């Protein structure tokens, strides 16, 4: 009897570890669809489709939360583009700056969107350093390509807009807007649209309380139990964020729509 119980417990442990490993891989390890390493390593061939590079961190990679780049890729009006997902989990502005040549310039893009800075805020990267990094990113993309460039403002961190971390975020978003104006590139008001939606909601928002355990739990609900990212957010009492940082489908749709409008505005007649 003891031997049978031991075997059952071992099988249960193997199953739990296997499930946890699957969630961990799907969320934190696997690459996004069409990353630069696949799409751009050997350079672009003449006559290939125009390339759009979406550069950023985990919100762009889209394996934890909504895949807004994939949603953009699937829109019928943009079937003529090739979308390259240059989002990397955990990336800061310094990390993106270090991979500009391989992840953006090498793709010879027609258009580039940049959504970077959430991890700078969370890591207390000094605002002046963030501003310098962002300006250097834009300058390097402009020097190495002829692409149109759009800087996106950062989504709220948690849905309590009065929280200290969102007060700090204000300075980083101001730096994004200032950089766009100074370098004469486009600015997409992601933060502003999300804030408008959250203010319409009313009620008492849940305080910012991100943790790896919460992120892993959100991913488990999605990948193991088949819940949509909207359901995951709703289960936590949130409107746009599955774990106080990453976007549900509704939040991702805001970025998709802004990027789609921007791309359409730049199409030749």
TrEMBL record:
<dbReference type="GO" id="GO:0004622">
    <property type="term" value="F:phosphatidylcholine lysophospholipase activity"/>
</dbReference>
<dbReference type="Pfam" id="PF13472">
    <property type="entry name" value="Lipase_GDSL_2"/>
</dbReference>
<dbReference type="InterPro" id="IPR013830">
    <property type="entry name" value="SGNH_hydro"/>
</dbReference>
<dbReference type="InterPro" id="IPR051532">
    <property type="entry name" value="Ester_Hydrolysis_Enzymes"/>
</dbReference>
<protein>
    <submittedName>
        <fullName>Lysophospholipase L1-like esterase</fullName>
    </submittedName>
</protein>
<feature type="domain" description="SGNH hydrolase-type esterase">
    <location>
        <begin position="55"/>
        <end position="204"/>
    </location>
</feature>
<dbReference type="InterPro" id="IPR036514">
    <property type="entry name" value="SGNH_hydro_sf"/>
</dbReference>
């Amino acid at each position: 009897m003891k031997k049978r119980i031991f075997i059952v417990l071992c099988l249960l442990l193997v199953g739990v570890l296997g499930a946890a490993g699957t969630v961990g891989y799907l969320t934190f390890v696997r690459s996004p669809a069409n990353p630069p390493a696949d799409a751009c390593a050997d350079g672009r061939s003449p006559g290939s489709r125009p390339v759009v590079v979406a550069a950023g961190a985990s919100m762009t990679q889209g394996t934890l939360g909504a895949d807004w780049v994939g949603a953009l890729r699937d829109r019928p009006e943009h079937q003529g583009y090739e979308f390259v997902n240059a989002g990397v989990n955990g990336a800061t502005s310094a990390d993106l700056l270090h991979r500009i040549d391989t992840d953006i310039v090498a793709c010879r893009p027609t258009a580039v969107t940049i959504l970077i800075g959430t991890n700078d805020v969370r890591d207390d990267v000094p605002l002046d350093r963030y501003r310098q990094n962002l300006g250097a990113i834009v300058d390097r993309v402009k020097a190495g390509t002829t692409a149109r460039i759009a800087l996106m403002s950062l989504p709220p961190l948690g849905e309590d807009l009065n929280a200290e971390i969102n007060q700090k975020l204000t300075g980083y978003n101001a730096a994004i807007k200032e950089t766009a104006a100074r370098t004469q590139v486009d600015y997409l008001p992601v933060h502003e649209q999300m804030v408008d939606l959250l203010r319409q909601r009313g009620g008492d928002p849940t305080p910012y309380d991100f943790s790896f355990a919460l992120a892993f739990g959100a991913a488990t609900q999605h990948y193991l139990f088949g819940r949509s990212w909207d359901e995951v957010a709703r289960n936590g009492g949130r409107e746009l964020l599955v774990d106080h940082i990453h976007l549900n489908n509704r939040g991702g749709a805001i970025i998709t729509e802004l990027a789609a409008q921007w791309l359409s505005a730049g199409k030749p007649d």
